[in-house]
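Consider this pair:
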Amino acid sequence: MSDDDPLDDENPFGGLPFLGDLAKMFQTQGPINWEAAQQFARQLATGGTPETNVDPTDRVRLTELARVAELQVATATGLDATSSGSPVRIDAVTRSEWARETLESQRPLMERLAVRLKASPPDDLSAGPEAQLLGGLFQFLNPMMMAMSAGSMAGHLSIRTFGIYDLPIPREGDRILVVAANLAEFADEWSIPQDDVRLWVCVHELTMHSVLAVPHVRAQVNDLLGRYIDGFHHDPHAIEERLSQMELGAGDPEDLQRQMQQVLGDPEALLGAMRSTEQAAVVPDLEALLAVIVGYTDHIMEQVGRGLIGSYDSLVEAFRRRRVTASASDRFVERLLGVDLRADLVERGQGFVAGVVERSGEEGLARLWESPRTLPTPNEVEAAGLWLARIDLPDDSD
């Protein structure tokens, strides 16, 4: 292990046990070595120290508050929170449990990304020890890098996240995971009662889950995420340039590990993840939909939370600050998956929802999720009146 802080916010791969696991990472038949990814995620989630189980009383209390939140959210949204027909469960889990389940949930997206970024060994490497080493690294780079990317994504997020919808990405099933330790630390940091934080998170997670359980909304988000990922074009020169900067002549294992840690400090360059014109065409639609989902969720939080949570105003400010101070690791994940919840995107969504409510009340806002046709376009997110006028027009498909 290097002396780098394992939780270094500036390096998504900081602190990963790496050289000793290279051989294991290379032994994979698929685009990602998922065993290695799980090891990386657990290392980051726990900091390499033993992790205690969630206190049973915390589990019980969260379940009790979830029932209260579920009734309130159902009344405010008029949406069915279930996507599978089974009752929604909100479970308090450890960071490592959250990371493990998140890796499994995001496996299709990450494997799709790995295929898009698949690298081939360069043809112009000259013979010699350094060339042979670089050639071997190129050959095995994708399973290694994608294992580290997936593992670091889940591991770093587990340290900060409250539930599963800090990033509004659909998940299969109706089980919502809440990281008990993160809620407790946040409540202590801001001197807010833990029950208030628990209730806030339950309302947020259930609202987001209810929206993403709408079949055409889920399908549209998944389609746009898939198209965004498919738009990546692999750049082998980015990888070649970074690796060729390594000085391999000394043969010092510790020095080699230090150099590799530095090289891996720029994961986007190593992945060759370059935006293309195809991605640029997808981004406006993806960001418009994400903005509306986040803006709607914030609106329901205001409706439900203000009458339900005693420290509501303090929580609004605390969560606002938390949202705008995401770490470099969080931003890496968001850019990689196209789910970049910037402040201006959040404000766009909030402005759209406020405009709809001002013009047509809660009844008008309820039409947002009626059908694929009623999902706003990017231009309509900027002008709620245009959206309201369009959805009142006759449907040409009828």
Summary: Strands lie at 89-93, 175-179. Residues 1-7 have pLDDT under 50 and may be disordered.
